[in-house]
TrEMBL record:
Superkingdom, natural source: Bacteria
Keyword entries, A-Z: Membrane, Transmembrane, Transmembrane helix
Entry keyword Transmembrane: yes
Key word Transmembrane helix present: yes
Ranges annotated as spanning the membrane: 38-59, 79-97, 117-136, 197-215, 245-261, 282-299, 305-321, 328-347, 381-402, 409-429, 475-499
Protein name per the record: Glycosyltransferase RgtA/B/C/D-like domain-containing protein
Length: 642
């Protein structure tokens, strides 16, 4: 063997031995490092979410709905449910704070979202909004059932009866649900039971996409979605037109911003325009305009309030960007105007389209004072959430302006948040206008808060050109701690906000069955008289055969008749009050009185009728010759007034 050959072999063996030794050293040091960082590994949130879902599923048989009280369902949830929820909440926090704020490509976004945050967020969503769907026999909320009835009516008749009620004049949502029912054969009752979790998931997905026009930061978008979901307590995510119209309005806003960024409507160049992300080539094509117009038309034919609020938001955006030719808003306005002309005969006969500005326009809906222990505490959770959003938004605006020395970065979300409030100047919307303003402003308030926490101030027109303010030393730890603390705080408040009012929100299956019997078996033109409005009425496609009491001047229940509160002190007074009013109604048509556990729960929450008075009242109804018991099952009764 020659000397060069032997030398080369020696060098090769030396390198091989050193490489093997290095690999062993790396493995010996990497294993403990991986074990030390197991909690913060990319897969930790996903595994924690899976664990949380397993614990939650195991806890469901232990949920005791009979323990619902002034504390809502909280007293009926087993300890294991709270443990599962805490694990899911921690998983969301870990997934959120472990993300980078810098822009990432679509493939990277999908990997991060699916592997870390999406499973955690989905688990939290399911626990909050699917628990009641699984433990209750029928859909939540008494006011859900009239929407089921309208859907059934349109399935039977095909054409809306515009003189019947307001929903028949805005049938878009009901037609879509009916088509889905025909395609999937999923019962409408099942759709209504799980509507909340589907609506919240739809809101989250559409909002995440919409925010892509204003930021490319995954963390900002994700944190915005989380804050919005945990603070959206208004209750417009059930089986109702608003549940479809609201995410559709978010889509139209996202589309409109992308259309502006693509050069449509001749926006004025400047720093404000640089806040928008252009998006794909699709937004430069006619198809994008057609899609936006079609979605807006769907909103118009589905809901009364949403298109007006959306038009105000789009008009505010047009002013902010100084659009010189915002013709699409004119098209939207024409669509809304034409449909209002169609619905005007019904609306003008029953509602005041314009009311002069006064305190009533901004006053939230009034309610009785609950007397059960815990009810007052549960009622404060939504107030605390709203207060947090207001204070945190104002603080975030101030901090962003101080950091950037400009208002350019907050003008767009501020315009979108403030614009719907103008409706309150002319229309209180049944004292719900201020709540709807909160709902329409909430995504943009959440966005400002998230932007402040992440310190991602703006997005330039080119992908990847993120403008970030200088971050002081130690900022990363502060930002992650602040973001995590906000999520934990809102996650804790969300439980009483969403599950703390079940004395009113829960509906008994016996009452649903009783109402179905009434609508299917009583003579046409009969009237259903209720003790209080907490009852699942108008739940079948035959509700049009009966007196709907849709006239504002006619009380829909005994609870709305003057003197009801004074009569609830004793069974004798309540019975005489019921008999006297029922007989005045019976002079016009057949009247049936409904009494059941859903109404009893309402009466108990507000201390209107004690158990003893309620039982004695039922006995008097059954023994009196003026009432005939025609239906009885599991505590739900129907009496015919003779």
């Amino acid at each position: 063997m020659t000397a060069p050959t032997q030398l080369s072999r020696t060098v090769r063996d030396y390198i091989r031995n050193r490489s093997a030794h290095g690999a062993q050293s790396t493995e010996s040091t990497a294993a403990p490092r991986r074990s030390q960082n197991l909690l913060l590994s990319p897969w930790a949130p996903a595994w924690m979410s899976l664990l949380a879902l397993v614990l939650w599923a195991v806890s469901l048989p232990g949920v005791d709905v009979s323990k619902i009280s002034g504390w809502g369902l909280l007293t009926g949830l087993p300890p294991l449910w709270y443990i599962a929820y805490a694990v899911a909440l921690v998983a969301v926090v870990i997934a959120l704070v472990s993300q980078s704020s810098r822009p990432v490509g679509p493939l990277r976004i999908q990997m991060i979202w699916r592997r870390r945050l999406l499973p955690s967020f989905a688990a939290l969503l399911v626990m909050l909004f699917a628990t009641t769907a699984l433990v209750y026999d029928v859909p939540r909320y008494p006011w859900t059932y009239k929407h089921i009835g309208v859907t059934e009516y349109l399935r039977i008749h095909g054409v809306p009866a515009t003189a019947l009620d307001i929903y028949q004049n805005f049938p878009g949502f009901f037609y879509i649900v009916g088509v889905l029912h025909e395609i999937t054969r999923i019962p409408l009752m099942a759709m209504a039971r799980y509507a909340e979790v589907v609506a919240h998931a739809l809101n989250a997905g559409v909002l995440y996409w919409t925010l892509g026009a204003l930021t490319r930061s995954h963390r900002v978008k994700a944190l915005t979605v989380i804050i919005f979901t945990l603070t959206n307590w208004v209750g417009q995510t059930y089986f109702a037109p608003q549940a479809l119209a609201f995410p559709a309005s978010l889509f139209v806003i996202g589309a409109f911003l992308r259309l502006i960024a693509a050069g449509n409507f001749r926006p004025m160049a400047g720093p404000l325009l640089e806040q928008l992300h252009r998006g794909g080539l699709f937004w430069s094509r006619v198809a994008a305009l057609v899609l936006s117009s079609s979605i807006f038309a769907l909103i118009v034919v589905s809901h009364q309030f949403t298109p007006i609020a959306l038009l105000m938001q789009l008009a505010a955006v047009a002013v902010v960007f100084r659009l010189r030719n915002p013709w699409l808003i004119g098209v939207f306005t024409l669509i809304e105007g034409l449909w209002l002309i169609h619905a005007f005969p019904y609306i003008s006969n029953r509602f005041d389209l314009i009311e002069r500005p006064n305190y009533d326009n901004v006053r939230p809906p009034s309610a009785l004072s609950a007397v059960l222990p815990g009810a007052d505490v549960m009622a404060r959770a939504p107030h605390l959430i709203t207060l947090f959003i207001v204070i945190a938004t104002i603080a975030a605006v101030g901090r962003i302006v101080l950091r950037t020395r400009t208002i350019h970065t907050i003008v767009v979300p501020a315009a979108l948040a403030l614009a719907p409030g103008a409706i309150l100047l002319v229309q209180p919307y049944g004292q719900e206008g201020v709540l709807r303003w909160y709902l329409f402003a909430l995504p943009w308030c959440s966005f400002v808060i998230a932007r402040d926490l992440c310190r991602v101030e703006s997005v330039g027109p080119e992908p990847g050109s993120v403008a970030q303010t200088a971050r002081p030393r130690g900022y990363a730890l502060w930002a992650k701690t602040a973001a995590g603390s906000v999520v934990v705080l809102l996650g804790v408040l969300a439980v009483p906000a969403f599950l703390g009012n079940e004395m009113i929100n829960r509906v008994w299956k016996a009452d649903v069955t009783a109402n179905q019997w009434f609508e299917q078996n009583t003579p046409q033109g009969s009237e259903l008289l209720l003790l209080v409005s907490a009852y699942p009425h108008k739940s079948t496609g035959m509700y049009d055969r009966h007196v709907t009491l849709d006239e504002p001047a006619v009380p829909r229940s005994l609870g709305q008749v003057d003197g009801f509160s004074e009569a609830t002190g004793s069974a004798k007074k309540l019975f005489e009050f019921t008999r006297d009013y029922a007989q005045t109604r019976a002079a016009q048509h057949d009247v049936y009185l409904a009494v059941g556990p859903t109404q009893k729960s309402y009466l108990e929450l507000y201390g209107l009728v004690s158990d003893k008075v309620y039982d004695d009242y039922l006995t008097r109804l059954q023994e009196d010759n003026g009432f005939e018991l025609v239906y009885s099952a599991e505590g739900s009764y129907l009496f015919r007034v003779l």
